[in-house]
Amino acid sequence: MSDNYNYDYVSGVDPAPKKNGSRIAIITAAVLGVAAGGGAAAYNLSPLVKNQVKLRVCSAESYSAWVYEENSQTIAKEAADRYRRYLDDAGGGKSFGYTLKYDVSDEAKDKLLEKLGDVDDTSKELKNFISAIEDTESLTLNVEQAGSGNSTSARAGFSRNDESIIAVDTFIDMESLETYLRIPDLKDQWLFIDSSEMLSGLNSDDVNYLRKCLTDPGSVLTPDDLETEIQRYVDLWNKSVSDVKVEKKSDVEIGDITVDYTVINVKLTPEKMEEVRDAFVNEMKKDDILRSIVVDRTKSMTAEEYEEKLDKALARKASTKDELDIYTYVDPTGVIRGMKVSNPDGVLIDTAMGIKDDQVRGFVNSDKGSAQLKAALTDGKMTGDIVITDEDGKDTRISFTDYETVNKDLCFFNADVTVSRDDNTFGLKFVGDPSSQQVIADINADTGDGRMDFGTVSLRLSVNDAKSIEIPDKGSALEIDRDNFSFKDVFTEEEMTSFLEGFYDKLGLGSDYGSELAGLIYDNDDLMGDIASMDTDSYDFGLTDEEWDEEDEEDSDTPAFSFPEYPDEEAVSDYLFQPGENQAYLVTIDNNFRVNTLSNDSGKVAKGAETADVNGAGTYTVSVDADCESFRKVSGDAPAGLMFSTLMINGLTEADKDRVTVDSVLLDGKEVEVPETEPEYMDMGEGGPAVFVNLFMNGDGIGEWKKLEVTFTVK
Fold first, then answer.
1. How many Å separate Cα 218 from the centre of its chain?
2. What is the pTM of this model?
3. What percent of the chain has pLDDT over 70?
4. Is residue 468 scored above 70 in pLDDT?
5. Is 128 helix (H, G, I), strand (E, B) or coil?
6. Partner of 496 at 20 to 30 A CA spacing, among 123, 302, 596, 658?
């Protein structure tokens, strides 16, 4: 075989390298490095030169491993750095602002007034309401949030015409789970709520875990751990695959441009996939970081449970019988630009991105739909379209102009965007700078009399340096009893009256509303207590419980119903069996909601059922025998009719569901017609993948039955 560097295709195990090829490649790299300016050091700095040298002097496996390693190192480092910055910000490094604003158009106000029609000019309330509508130019909701150590504070406010209507302050101590609340315009004193009471249903480990995640997420997962774990499993992938081919300078068509990419092809047989899976599971058994996170830091499992779950994963058979081909597109600098995954039935997903001259193209194709990018670069800004096609063949077009990133870490950008689908179109303007991102939308809609301008909505996110926050004094705060709360115990009538008068006056409705509402609150001893406690017993309208029950029975057309009591697994364990990983079986539900399985997620069903071993294409029959002790013990009685049955087929994947058809349903030997339903896929967790088909029956006309039999085909 000729020297590898002269060929565009290499395959298999490392051949013995010929010295001339390696020397020429290295000399070429050195010359390119010097030409680039920087001597020998340029080799270390030039991704292009690195990639070309590796491509020519390495075997397919070695080159593939290097590409994945280089990209994984970059991804791992960026992920760790982003996570590290998040931890810094969460610890009080940043403050955040969120603003949602609606600028009301005159057309929208005119339309609302038109809907109100003629009003009574003598009604002061209606005149105030109309005046408030006419004078409203904007409505704004804003939130400012900041943190300091284990504490976080926020102020939420609502404004009209940029004048504050109401503001609410909150403060939460993440360590003690104490919450403070106040409305400054109502009372400057903080109200204290012990939030830990709401977690009383959790055990101490759960509460401690929640507290740790809130106060110190870095103690659960450190940035260094994250970087290590990403690289660990990419390295394991490299070691696990061996059937690798590399096609150099392959023409990859991306839309209407063609780019030269190196294509790495890894072929995975079912046996190889099982081998790779076992390698990953065994690595997880040795992974001290992962074990520490699950067992020690979060206490999600005990050490024994962790080992047991991994052992079960090793014992489980592979869920696919098809080969997979994985193609990775690598640009001349060694950066992965796309990937394709296919099996004998076709392409599962294919995605790639490329640039040629000033033209940018990209695509994502799958059986669920596709997306196509076509754009052009001008002075660092991108203009173009993304067309997204769904499963039904309908297109959504996203057109953008002058897209540019202004903050890479926070993904803030500038662009004018138009979204079109069918006959509907709306525009968005994205305005970003290093510390904020704003989205602006003009609201237009068809009202039947043509399109109407409702105004403009804008959403703004800002990120700034940390601000000092006010820490409430618990000693001077007023503790709230959530189970026995009354406004009158917290606020005086004068405080409430002043607050409500100001609130309604700022809304433009007049202070009289506030005075009347405050009087209503404090003149009625039970009103606010009832509202606060939501005590529905107070709203009996003079009827006793017995009278309510009698009226319910008279007025209701729905018969009384209650679910049966399902047995514990331990009590009926001798009457149950566990279907295998590639077995099909039936679950039945009668008119009284009695079932031949357990109410938990164990997947066990009553004995006496006939299962089928599904080992590929073929026709299979499964059945349920209701005329036996096991069925009656598990379900609680003989069946009363049959509401529906579910055909479960373990081991089939989502790609297999379209291969399943139900041929016949027999009940006590007689064929039963059932509505046609589409097979569905579900992940059973430890039980593996499964496809199921719901078979709905006319339960009322069936009565007691003895045997249900279903025949189905897997194509």
1. 22
2. 0.62
3. 77
4. yes
5. helix
6. 123
Residue 64 lies in a domain: yes
Burial (Cβ within 10 Å: 0-12, 13-18, ≥19) of residue 551: exposed
600 vs 509, 568, 603, 605, 636, CA distance in Å? 56, 9, 8, 11, 16
- Is the pLDDT at 613 greater than 70, yes or no? yes
Q: Tell me, what's the pLDDT at 127?
A: 82
Instruction: Please state the separation of Cα 508 from the chain's center in Å.
Output: 42
Are the C-beta atoms of 311 and 247 separated by less than 8 Å?
no
Reading the block at residue 205, the tokens are 């480990």
Is the pLDDT score of 566 beyond 90? no
The pLDDT of residue 31 is 34
Residue 14 scores a pLDDT above 50: no
What average pLDDT does the chain have? 79
| Domain assignment present for 592 | yes
The set of residues, in sequence order, having a beta carbon less than 8 Å from that of 544 and lying 6+ positions away, is: none
Distance CA 147, CA 17 (A): 59
Give me the residue label for tokens 């005159």. Answer: 106
* Residue 614 pLDDT exceeds 50: yes
Domain count, the chain: 2
Domain ranges, residue 673: 570-714
Task: Determine contact, residues 373/363, Cβ cutoff 8 Å.
Answer: yes
Q: DSSP letters along 46-105, please?
A: -HHHHHHHHHHHS-HHHHHHHHHHHHHHHHHHHHHHHHHHHHHIIIIIEEEEEEEEEEE-
CA separation (Å) from 502 to 28, 30, 165, 228, 514? 80, 78, 8, 58, 7
Angle at 263 (CA atoms; ends 262, 268), nearest 5 degrees: 155
pLDDT tier at 66, thresholds 50, 70, 90: low
For residue 157, pLDDT over 70 is answered with yes
Q: Which of 40, 61, 86 represents a domain boundary (last residue)? A: 86
Beta bridge partners of 577: 605
259, exposed or middle or buried, with CB in 10 Å at 0-12, 13-18, 19+? buried
Given 69, 86, 103, the domain boundary residue is 86
3-class secondary-structure state, position 271: helix
Residues in the chain: 715
Burial 557-586 (b: 16+ CB within 10 A, else e): eeeeeeeeebbeeeebeebbeebebbbbbb
